[in-house]
């Protein structure tokens, strides 16, 4: 104990409360702090390097683009005075919105790409041009060799030479500008250039409608230079047969895209020879609409006209109304069908079918007219026979001294008979009963008693109900068989011939792949 009874004060070394009770913690904390400082310094340096690299890359690309304007004349084509510029072309059709028979054109939306080489735009050997304190200096930066291709906006197209390509059979065209101009330029380090643009074009398409609606149309787009002849520009399909692609999503209400093909040709005009490319797309028409709206209704109208053959020939109002209605319906159907087509002078496939149907229903109406005429002629002949027989019987009674003996002898009854034998000679037999005179028309008078009445008139046989060896009922019976058989045979010949003739595929056609 110390003085005044207090305990003596002592010091014991040890870690403070922030270090914990373990004496090895201090070195670990120091190491962690040092590592954190080193990592932070490394991240800061990396950020500075990336910023510097990006800045140098941006400066490098801008310098390359700016260097193109040095001694570059966009009014002169590449290799001027030398070989022509080869311009490769590819197309990819996105959609085909319409194909009009009346306007004879079609509208399609597609990507149009052109490829050519301009040595003046090669930049692999061009030095970077940078500025330092306002003094221009030239040095080769290592990043230039790493840039293979430059993608620039459509604004750059105004600074370089481009082919004056146009579409020969174009009617109207439009560029797409939503949300910006749908166009880009890519410049390869070797000087090759790719230009891609999206276009919508309405082009003329002369159509042959001879097999309509079983036709196949071949529409084309023709590509050519407007001013440069073959001494300056030669067009080619850049990827051969695969230069044109058509999306499988392309669809039209009345057509299907069968396939496409490419051609390259040389066109001779008064201003020179020009290189031209043609992309041909073949369409096949869908028959569903025309089967439902035209072929089936017209066939049913013909069948309805046959009902007249089963009606009684004395039902004149019903048969006439049915025949006239079917004829007018076919006329209306033919008019409405041709109203939606161009006014062409040659006969179409559908005209053959509708014309035949019209002839069939008109023949049904004429059949009833024939039946009615024959029935009337037969009835008139029967009435004559009955009248002649009655007169002949009266004459016989007078000759035999019957109840009419008290009548004066001079009383006479005059009649005319269409004797077939006399008719063949151009006259009619006239007879006078009971003492009258008789003779042939235009001939001399016969004896006072008159000629005897022919036996086939006095006693008609079973042919009295026939005209030309046939009865009106026989015509109806034959028509019930002949008309359907003729119509069925016509349909067989029509569909076999026209489907076979119209099933023609263009040579070298690249068929469109259809998703299964």
TrEMBL record:
Gene Ontology MF terms in the entry: chloride channel activity; extracellular ligand-gated monoatomic ion channel activity; ligand-gated monoatomic anion channel activity
GO terms for cellular component: chloride channel complex; postsynaptic membrane
Decide whether keyword Disulfide bond is in the record: yes
Which ranges form a coiled coil? Answer: none
Indicate where this protein resides in the cell: Postsynaptic cell membrane
Q: Which InterPro entries match?
A: GABAA/Glycine_rcpt (IPR006028), GABAAb_rcpt (IPR002289), Neur_chan_lig-bd (IPR006202), Neur_chan_lig-bd_sf (IPR036734), Neur_channel (IPR006201), Neuro-gated_channel_TM_sf (IPR036719), Neuro_actylchol_rec (IPR038050), Neurotrans-gated_channel_TM (IPR006029)
Q: Where are the stretches annotated Disordered?
A: 421-460
| Pfam families reported in the protein's UniProt record | Neur_chan_LBD, Neur_chan_memb
Print the keywords alphabetically.
Answer: Cell membrane, Chloride, Chloride channel, Disulfide bond, Glycoprotein, Ion channel, Ion transport, Ligand-gated ion channel, Membrane, Postsynaptic cell membrane, Receptor, Signal, Synapse, Transmembrane, Transmembrane helix, Transport
Q: Where is the Neurotransmitter-gated ion-channel ligand-binding domain?
A: 63-281
Question: How does this protein sit in the membrane?
Answer: Multi-pass membrane protein
Which protein is depicted?
Gamma-aminobutyric acid receptor subunit beta
The lineage is: Eukaryota, Metazoa, Ecdysozoa, Arthropoda, Hexapoda
């Amino acid at each position: 104990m110390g003085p005044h009874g207090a305990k003596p004060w002592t010091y014991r070394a040890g870690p403070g409360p922030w270090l914990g009770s373990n004496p090895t913690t201090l070195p670990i904390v120091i190491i962690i702090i040092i590592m954190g400082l080193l990592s932070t310094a490394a991240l800061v340096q990396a950020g500075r390097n990336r910023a510097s690299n990006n800045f140098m890359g941006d400066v490098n690309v801008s310098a390359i683009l700016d260097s193109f304007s040095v001694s570059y004349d966009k009014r002169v084509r590449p290799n001027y005075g030398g070989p022509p510029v080869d311009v490769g072309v590819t197309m990819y059709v996105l959609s085909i919105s319409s194909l009009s028979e009346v306007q004879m054109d079609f509208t399609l939306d597609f990507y149009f790409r052109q490829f050519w080489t301009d040595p003046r735009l090669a930049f692999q050997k061009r030095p970077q041009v940078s500025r330092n304190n306002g003094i221009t200096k030239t040095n080769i930066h290592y990043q230039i060799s790493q840039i293979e291709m430059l993608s620039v906006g459509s604004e750059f197209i105004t600074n370089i030479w481009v082919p004056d390509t146009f579409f020969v059979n174009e009617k109207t065209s439009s560029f797409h500008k939503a949300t910006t101009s749908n166009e880009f330029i890519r410049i390869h380090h070797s000087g090759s250039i790719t230009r891609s643009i999206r276009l919508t074009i309405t082009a003329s398409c002369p159509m042959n409608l001879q097999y309509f609606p079983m036709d196949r149309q071949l529409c084309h787009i023709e590509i050519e230079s407007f001013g440069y002849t073959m001494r300056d520009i030669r067009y080619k399909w850049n990827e051969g047969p695969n230069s044109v692609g058509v999306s499988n999503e392309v669809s039209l209400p009345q057509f299907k895209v069968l396939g496409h093909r490419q051609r390259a040709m040389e066109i001779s005009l008064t201003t020179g020879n020009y290189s031209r490319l043609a992309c041909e797309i073949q369409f096949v028409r869908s028959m569903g609409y025309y089967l439902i709206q035209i072929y089936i209704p017209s066939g049913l109208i013909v069948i309805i006209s046959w009902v007249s053959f089963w009606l009684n020939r004395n039902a004149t109002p019903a048969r006439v109304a049915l025949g006239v209605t079917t004829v007018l319906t076919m006329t209306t159907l033919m008019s409405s069908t041709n109203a939606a087509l161009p006014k062409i002078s040659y006969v179409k496939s559908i005209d053959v079918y509708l014309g035949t149907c019209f002839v069939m229903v008109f023949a049904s109406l004429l059949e009833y007219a024939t039946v009615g005429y024959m029935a009337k002629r037969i009835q008139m002949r029967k009435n004559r026979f009955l009248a002649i027989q009655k007169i002949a019987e009266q004459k016989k009674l007078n000759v035999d001294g019957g109840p009419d003996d008290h009548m004066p002898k001079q009383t006479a009854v005059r009649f005319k008979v269409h004797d077939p034998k006399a008719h063949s000679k151009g006259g009619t037999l006239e007879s006078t009963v009971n003492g009258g005179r008789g003779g042939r028309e235009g001939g001399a008078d016969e004896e006072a008693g008159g000629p005897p009445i022919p036996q086939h008139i006095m006693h008609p046989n079973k042919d009295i109900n026939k005209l030309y060896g046939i009865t009106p009922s026989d015509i109806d019976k034959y028509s019930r068989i002949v008309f359907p058989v003729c119509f069925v045979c016509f349909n067989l010949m029509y569909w076999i011939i026209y489907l076979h003739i119209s099933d023609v595929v263009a040579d070298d056609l690249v068929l469109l792949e259809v998703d299964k």
